[in-house]
Specification:
Two copies of one chain form a homodimer.
Chain A: H1 8-27, H2 33-42, E1 48-54, E2 57-62, E3 73-78, H3 84-91, E4 98-104, E5 107-112, H4 115-127, E6 134-139, E7 142-148, E8 152-159, E9 162-163, H5 168-194
Helix pairs in contact in A: 2-5
Chain lengths: ~200, ~200
């Protein structure tokens, strides 16, 4: 296989598709409010667009390991701070494997028109605190950059029916603080992108 | 800035430097035993070499958040399973912020001679279970690919002087199992790389 240049026409089509999907998602109320403005900003740029994004969230999953995706059942999901009551209502349900409360920072997938832009974007996002970002694919449809912070923390709440945590309120407060840390980085990224010629 | 091709001569020099460093590290006993064979294998390949690597480890850090690097003090580190006694001896010491036991899967930095190789490598490592891998830099010195699995789990043990965990033995056993999961992926990666023309 040989790497060809990105096909600009194909890329522009994909960009337009992504933009239309974004508008539709706004209309049906599907767009994560905390990230809407950033995506709008990105669509004013020449050489990048976004495909999927999440502003950060707190989920509770019933799984053997917190990193599993397919075998995992998500029993709770929220893109804003959680309350002790939210978590208690889940905690009192039957657990099959292990119950993990997972805080994730923002995740954004960008598509860049060329390698220069991709490299420039990597520098910008790293400066904004998204240290774990990288190019995950290169094709004639564009260069896909996954932008992630290091904010991803699972808390083991229950092992089967056994509750592991001594102070649930402390965990809830800490998880909310971590969620906020992620959202704050998103604001920093917004400023960095706004000022970038990209 | 315009992306130029990788300078093959510069790349070969870097490769030789990395190989000499690896040999020195073996001599002083600095090389992580669980990853030595894999690095040796990589140095038999034409278009890739490794710069830094870790086979997976368990650390205990005293930090506000587990993802912090600079502000963190590592109070314990081991590349093999830990015992309850290991952890208890740390738990009984004074904690400044929060005490986190962190299990990390393998991390390897590869340097590829060209984009074709980098893309090929990304496919190989993803198939071997290293789903969070990406190209983190591109320069005339080579294309750097960070290869990581999703295995990274912090356990909050103490908040200040307050112990959070009800059953430490359960956490120790689980952390060791997770460490093993990471090492198993390394073996899978070894097989995939051995059979790859790269």
């Amino acid at each position: 296989m040989t790497v060809n240049k990105v096909d600009e026409r194909l890329w522009k089509n994909k960009r337009e598709e992504a933009y239309n999907r974004f508008l539709e998602d706004i209309e049906i109320g599907y767009v994560d409010a905390d990230i809407k403005e950033l995506i709008e900003l990105v669509f004013t740029k020449k050489n990048i667009f976004t495909t999927s994004s999440c502003s950060g969230r707190i989920v509770i999953v019933d799984a053997l390991y917190p990193w599993l995706r397919e075998e995992t059942s998500i029993v709770f999901k929220k893109h804003s701070p959680v309350t002790l009551e939210d978590v208690l209502s889940i905690l009192n349900q039957k657990t099959l494997y292990k119950l993990w409360l997972i805080v994730s920072g923002p995740i954004i997938h960008f598509n860049a028109l060329n390698l220069d832009t991709a490299i420039k974007l990597l520098t910008i996002v790293r400066n904004a605190g998204f240290k774990h970002s990288g190019i995950i694919s290169i094709s004639n449809g564009g260069i896909v950059i996954e932008v992630v912070s290091g904010i991803w923390v699972p808390f083991l709440l229950k092992d089967g029916e056994k509750v592991i945590i001594k102070d649930l309120e402390l965990i809830v407060n800490l998880a909310n603080k971590m969620l906020y840390e992620g959202k704050a980085r998103l604001e920093k990224l917004f400023k960095f992108l706004r000022d970038a010629d990209i």
